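Possible regression after last week's pipeline update?

I re-ran a chain I had predicted before the update to compare outputs. Posting the input and the new output here so someone can diff against the archived version. Not blocking, just want to make sure nothing changed silently.
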Amino acid sequence: MIIPIRCFTCGRLVADKWEDFSRRVRQGEDPAAVLDSMGLNRYCCRRMLLSHVDIIDDILQFAERS
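New output (post-update):
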């Protein structure tokens, strides 16, 4: 899925933080520490990044090609 632009609950902008979050977690940093350093302290905003599953690349394989 594509990361939502804003938090569903409070409306805070979260999409701009996805690339940095995913890169840092892949490098081995603790997700909680990364979210703290980004200033995402609300549970609703944290869950937007923690629960996101990036499957857009898998879906694009089945897209119709012209």
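Follow-up from reviewer: compared with the archived run. The domain at 1-66 is CATH 1.10.10.60 (Arc Repressor Mutant, subunit A). Marking as no regression found.
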